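From the shared-data thread, chain only:
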Amino acid sequence: MVVWITGGCGFIASNFLVRYVPEHPEIRFINVDALTYAANPESLAPIQGAANYEFLQLDLTDKEATAAALARTRPDVVINFAAETHVDRSIRRPEEVVNTNVGSVLSLLEGIRGLGENAPRLIHVSTDEVYGGLGNDESTTEASPYRPGNPYSASKAAGDHLVRAYARTFGLRTCITHCSNNYGPRQAPEKLIPRMIARIQAGETLPVYGEGKQRRDWLHVNDHNGAIWAVMEQGQDGETYDIGGGEEMENIGIVHELCAVMASLTGQAESQYRELITFVPDRPGHDWRYAIDSTKIRRELGWQPAVSFAEGLRSTVEWYLANPEWVAAARSRLEVAHA
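Structure, as tokens:
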């Protein structure tokens, strides 16, 4: 069995590969990545040299190169993790994010369609942000309408629609997943949790949008990848599966928790870290709340999250503290990319 993992040097996919390559030597995993600013090949150090793992550098927006690579390697399954994922970046540089997130999906679909009866199954990894912001007591399901509120979520929504359209028009075998906010090791420090960890370590201010009251449902990356594996093994073609951690918190609460965990691990006073918190103007179009109802995947595929937020946050902080070289390299890439 051959499985393509697109964006395999990114946050979620690198954790997927580090976990499943050793567990499944009978599967040949091909990591397909363009190595953009968010990619970090060092994340895959634990599996370098594995007999069932290989790396293929490829820009998925290149339609001809993607089709040729698919025809040459003949995957049975393509799990599409590849995407520009940062909302702030999509606001600053919407054209780049849209071109990547829409163009790569279209290129993959065309390449898969070109294989005819040998076409692989596609699992397209998307986000709950396509559903837009919610009120106090709402939660989204697979039947919820799309209401994307920023260029990033709009680009992901467009990708979802293309996947469904190709499945219906050309008979491709596809599944779509939507996840809530992921956290865990190997996440680029432009995201909330790793960014705050890095800034606490550096003694820098901790910028929080608005009053920090935005609420998110947090999902540990290992739980998310367990759900993706369940979809690969048991998911039904044509179906959508929403994946949430059931751990909803305000952004300011996350920052306070991080200060407490950092204090407990470093021996410093928690108040010393809290003094670094600075409230900054909110970003344009900032959705106030996301929340996912994961009943379908729990009921149909037997998946459920296993990592509590308290446990996951502490282990995440421990990973970043134990990997300063990885953090420094990741921050350096971001500085260059955002210059």
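The mean pLDDT is 94.
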